[in-house]
Amino acid sequence: MNRIALISDHASPLAAAGGTDSGGQNVYVGQVARHLARRGCQVDVFTRKDKALAPKVAKLCDGVRVFNVPAGPALALPKERLLPHMPEFSSGILKIFREQAAPYDLMHANFFMSGAAALPIRTALGIPLAVTFHALGKIRRQYQGADDGFPDCRFDIEEKLVREADALIAECPQESTDLQQLYGAAPERIHVVPCGFDSAEFTPMARRQARHELGWPQHTFIVLQLGRLVPRKGIDNVVRAIAVLRRRHGIRALLYVVGGNADLPDEIATPEIARLRAIAGAEGIEPQIAFVGRRARDVLRLYYSAANVFVTTPWYEPFGITPVEAMACGVPVIGADVGGIRHTVVEGKTGFLVPPRDPALLARRLALLATNDALAHILGGAGRVRAQSHFTWSGVAAQLMDVYATLLPASTRVSLGRARAVATLLPPA
Question: Does the first or last residue of the chain, that is N or C, have fewer Cβ atoms within 10 Å of its Cβ?
Fold first, then answer.
């Protein structure tokens, strides 16, 4: 049995997805942990303690524990304020490592701050280190400018990780290119492994049934936006496209926005809602925009299946799990032609790719789907096939195990290979 330490400073797999700092990375860490455990690995996740009453260790599932490591105040903080607490986070993890009855075979750090915490442990204990950045600081600064709350030293930390980590895991081909061109990463040390979806969570269901359960109108063209509600996600672009769709194409669509920092659409808890409502009001379409609030993952299938189309047009996106989830539910996707979305959505085959700030073109693509049910059905079906073929978490875990195997000594690689062999007997997930 291999012992794997997943380090995720601000994104706990136990957190509710959809909040300001709770999204794709939380899902990634939780699903990777579960699927590695299904393959015989013992997985421990190390995350920062952000609640006073959080236990030192909690069980996520069989074979997976989550350690809440004290580092700074035991309350939720924006990730941009966590860097000064990483030395304490690192020391706390090292202490737990030394308390274990058996050593860890490998560390997999998620995000640059987790990597910063892992490097001293790598030096102290000689444990191999793989890093998934989930977002690169130089790309973030390019798109967010002065709104980027991270200090410039982030670039230095990332460059150090690129030099010293044993493996770099890019989530899409674009990230591999960025690592090489912006950070000088050696291509032979980069492994492209995507994110995924869990078929136990996301499968198609009848649109009529989904709308009935949600109380949505049956005969309206419905656009879905689901995920974190922050400016860089470009939801304002979607709102404006809904207005253009009505003015230029004569189609009155409804846009449902799922996400936020609370179960109810609260403008205080989620300030982005107020900004988007103001844009909708200025465009004269406020009645066509419905903010749903945050929802648990076990009901997201309903929302995807109830929509005619899923739209996501962020300024940049290292991968983007939500387009894959929508595809898995058989829904056509219109996504921004950036980052990982460019890899998951196949133009004209599973959906459409559009510039991130072009509401007129987005409206034209929406109009095409609104007036051509046959095309929408074909795109949705092709998307489901692509999701099942390329983006299951089971497949992601298998690819990660292949990466891990290159970093481990021969005796441990044999153990990992046996786990892979056992995994082929498991049902897909």
Answer: N
